[in-house]
Design brief:
The chain has 325 residues and is α/β, with parallel strands linked by helices. It has 2 domains: 2-74, Roll (Ubiquitin-like (UB roll)), CATH 3.10.20; 121-325, no CATH class. The chain has 9 helices and 8 strands. The chain has helices spanning 24-35, 59-62, 77-106, 109-117, 136-147, 150-159, 203-215, 224-248, 278-305; strands spanning 2-9, 12-19, 43-45, 70-73, 165-168, 179-182, 187-190, 321-324. The protein has a 4-stranded mixed sheet, covered by helices on one side. β1 (2-9) and β2 (12-19) form a beta hairpin. α6 packs across α8 and α7 crosses α8 (224-248). The chain starts with a strand and ends with a strand. Mean pLDDT is 77; it is low at 107-118, 247-275 and 315-320.
Amino acid sequence: MTVTVPVSHKGKTHTVQVDLTSTVSSFQAQLKELTSVPIENQKLLFKGKNASAKSDDTLEIFGLTDRIKVQMLGSTAEEVGGLRAVEDERKQTEQTLRNREAQARTYSPSTRSRATTSNLSYRFHDIQSLAHLPNSGSARSFLTRLANDEAILHVMNLHKFSVGLLTELAPHEHPGLLGLNTNQGQSIKLRIRTDQYDGFRNFKDIRRVLCHELAHNVWGDHDNDFKELNSLLNREVAEYEFSLDRGTHKLVEGDFYDPELSGAGYALGGSPGASLPEFAREERRQRMLAAALNRLRTEEEEMEQSCGTTGPAKAAPVGTPTDTQ
């Protein structure tokens, strides 16, 4: 029996005619001709897939039917080489940043005391990536970075938030969702991957979604109570990072520069802020913090407009999810 199967790959849909009595490997060979993705790099996702099927099984055993939509993941050999180079560069950059932060904290006793006094009850007790998606190890590392983010742990400790599981949402399985909180913190799921599964979304964007989902530990509906808590969490994250600035982005003693939070320009070779008195430097820091918080408020409003949460979390029955679209 010949059927028509639409196969989506990196935003393009290929219409493939196949005989259900042919093998999985022959179907993958067709896809290789269409997309240049080697068979060993192909991963096929669709409802009804038989996970135990083998390459020499028929497509009928595999679970294909007429007109079923298939999402194919995978990169060409050339793309894999490029991705590896990008990943190696990313790892090197992250290691450099970690080394700098570790060196800065060596000279910051107050930062070390904050880390050692955090209540370990208020954290993410388990972290899981989705094993059926590509680069599961990298996804777990990304989630671990979120879970161990100092600003997030700071607000979780302040508000006594405990989350059982931090995991991810698959874009093709939940195309409208950015986050999901189930049972007031039993689990929080975040959409960390790009739509094409070729990388990860911006870390700080996802962290703002995480703050949104943490607020759902207390409130379900996006009422004034929720908005106040959500704004408070984002403000506390921003203020906490400003409190850690002076060891991470020092230019001169008592002054710092954060390229994400400041629109000011700096001339190379000079000593920006060196001649300013302390009260002027503090005033500038406060203006930068206020600007960051104003941007956060705007982003919170946009996030709430695409969130489908219903019902107050405090009264939610067991099994009721809280989600952010």
